[in-house]
Amino acid sequence: METPGLVVHGEAEPFSTALRSLINNPLYSDVRFVVGQERQEVFAHRCLLACRCNFFQRLLSSEPGPGVPSPVVLSTVPAEAFLVVLEFLYTNSAKLQRHSVAVTFGLGQLQERCVAFIEAHSQETLRTRGFLELSAPALLPLLRSDKLCVDEAELVLAARSWARVGAAVLERPVAEVAAPVVRELRLALLAPAELSALEEQNRREPLIPVEQIVEAWKCHALRRGDAARGTPCRRRRGTLPREHHRFLDLPFK
């Protein structure tokens, strides 16, 4: 039997530093991106992106033709967030800021870290432009989280602002843009006066399906039993206490 060879491990820090120097570096770059509304040019390396991320593997699968290849345009992706993704792909680490946690390109580990960062800095993150530019699939895991440090009333306002921006960009109704995500809002956590105000605003500017508001009123009416169990009545880490919460069976843990 052949004796296994000796495995030599080099130092991680110099390796990471060397790869970090290639981020957005035109040296040896063979793919260019035009990113964000500002159309910032970003340089990268096809082989590294393709082997690290399935999204880029699919995006860059076709061989570039002769001459200078056309840039890949990602106009809906904030440049700051895109550069953070590149940093993670090149070095397997990245420094997260409130404005740069919006885009993960299906990178499970990075997405988990981004969600955890937002959970810990919920109120600050909701006020950033990056939050308003999130895609619906990126927003869903946030709205499903029990660990957001924000009250539900503020989260409803943030969701409305997000949907308004999307509606303006996509030229679609606010309710249509919001449809994939608003089901995750826990309206039963709102006090009756807050729910009434939301219902009135929803008549003027539709955002939330009427049946979802009806379900929230049902939780208030029944207080206990099946209607007061499950996600719609489960408090988040940042949920402010309200009188009717004493009837809910599932406190935040």
Structure, explained:
With 253 residues, this protein is mainly alpha-helical. It contains 12 helices and 3 strands. Strands 2-1-3 form a 3-stranded mixed beta sheet. Helix 11 packs antiparallel against helix 12 (210-222). The longest helix has 19 residues, at 152-170. The radius of gyration is 23 Å and the shape is elongated. 26% of the residues are buried. The mean pLDDT is 85. This is BTB domain containing 19.
Offer a concise description of the structure.
With 253 residues, this protein is mainly α. 45% of the residues lie in helices and 5% in strands. Strand 1 (31-35) and strand 2 form a beta hairpin.
Strand percent estimate: 5-15%
What is the tally of beta strands? 3
Q: Evaluate the radius of gyration.
A: 23 Å
In whole angstroms, the N-to-C terminal distance is 54 Å
* Morphology call: elongated
Number of helices: 12
pLDDT averaged residue by residue = 85
Helix percentage: 40-55%
Low-confidence stretches: none
Biggest beta sheet attributes = 3 strands, mixed
Organism: Ovis aries
Protein name: BTB domain containing 19
Q: Could you name the key traits of this structure?
A:
BTB domain containing 19; 3-stranded mixed β-sheet; 12 helices; mainly alpha; 3 strands; elongated; 253 residues
